[in-house]
Design brief:
With about 280 residues, the protein is α+β, with helices and mostly antiparallel strands. The protein has two domains: about 5-150, no CATH class; about 150-230, Nucleic acid-binding proteins (OB fold (Dihydrolipoamide Acetyltransferase, E2P), Beta Barrel). It has helices at about 5-25, 75-90, 135-150, 190-200, 245-255, 260, 270-275; strands spanning about 45, 60, 120-125, 130-135, 150-165, 170-175, 180-185, 205-215, 220-230. The strands form three sheets. Strands 7-6-5-8-9 form a five-stranded antiparallel beta sheet. A two-stranded antiparallel ribbon has the order 1-2. A hairpin with a 5-residue loop joins strand 6 and strand 7 (about 180-185). The longest helix is centred in the first third of the chain and has 22 residues, at about 5-25. The chain is globular. The protein starts with 5 loop residues before the first helix and ends in a 7-residue tail after the last helix.
């Protein structure tokens, strides 16, 4: 491991500690100050560096005279570790910022991953959950995008039509989370829109196009409609003429011998990058 990446460990600790403090404040709104020595109690240490993929097991240090019972030691720090991983996972999948993550702390991700090159990453493997998430430059850019402002991206949304205006054609679509987004529509889609509005209790409209997203990753409005379709019963239909994926698998495997199948690694799902690209994984 290059010594230049050691600041990443310090920034990660700062990130989870600041998040743990904010979680405590949220859970104790009647308390003006953090408990005495609260930050000092959030001590993270490592006692070894494991080889090959440079694994650094981070451990929580609890003082021997602490009032915390070891079997009850899970607190805001543990929750902060999980929430950081959930936020990284959401950014990696182009999902929205988790509601529980305080937006004002997103700036801390700006310095986390500063030393990483484009072909490097840090993996977070959680002790409390069977979860492993990857933090790389692409994830960092998504997190920074959430912080810096709105942006446009492709959308594929389904919702209930709650408003339609024929003059200067415009409509409102209520999404599954209850939020409404507006979009202009073409005159040729007027019948489709008015039908969706008339039958809004059961019908749903699907829109594919581009949307304006907030910094937190939520769509604010639809800026361009490429295609829209009416789902009469609210469900997404499928093309019965398309070959099922398991049939595709059967066709591919038909030409693979049992001998070749027996040579496949049994842990490929866990170490797919290693087998596909020969890359070692850096973990924290």
């Amino acid at each position: 491991m290059d010594l230049d990446v050691l600041p990443e460990l310090l920034q990660y600790k700062r990130l989870v500690v600041e998040l743990a403090k904010e979680l405590w404040r949220r859970r104790n709104p009647d308390r003006e100050r953090l408990p005495k020595n609260f930050e000092d109690s959030l001590a993270l240490r490592f006692y070894e560096v494991r080889g090959n993929c440079v694994t650094i097991p981070l451990e929580r240090a609890v003082a021997a005279d602490s009032n915390i019972q070891l079997w009850q030691a899970e607190d805001e720090l543990d929750d902060a570790v999980d929430l950081v991983a959930d936020t990284i996972e959401a950014a990696g999948k182009d999902q929205t910022l988790p509601d529980a993550f305080p937006k004002q702390l997103l700036q801390l991700f700006g310095d986390y991953g500063r030393t990483l090159r484009d072909d490097e990453w840090i993996e977070h493997k959680l002790a409390r959950r069977n979860v492993c998430v990857r933090y790389d430059k692409a994830v960092q850019r998504n997190l920074t995008r959430w912080l810096t402002g709105s942006y446009q991206d492709s959308i594929d949304v389904i919702g209930e039509v709650t408003m339609a205006r024929v003059s200067r054609p415009r409509m409102a679509l209520q999404l599954s989370d209850g939020r409404e987004v507006e979009a202009a529509f073409r005159p040729e889609d007027e019948d489709l829109i008015t039908t969706a509005l008339k039958e809004h209790t059961t019908a749903r409209l699907r829109i594919v196009g581009r949307g304006q997203f907030s910094a937190s990753g939520q769509v604010d409005r639809i800026v361009d409609v490429e295609h829209m379709s009416l789902l009469a019963d609210g469900s997404v239909g499928f093309d019965v003429s398309v070959k099922a994926i398991w049939d595709e698998f059967d066709e591919v495997l038909a030409d693979v011998s049992d001998k070749d199948l027996s040579r496949l690694p049994v842990d490929a799902a866990e170490r797919h990058d290693f087998y596909l690209h020969g890359q070692h994984e850096a973990e924290t």
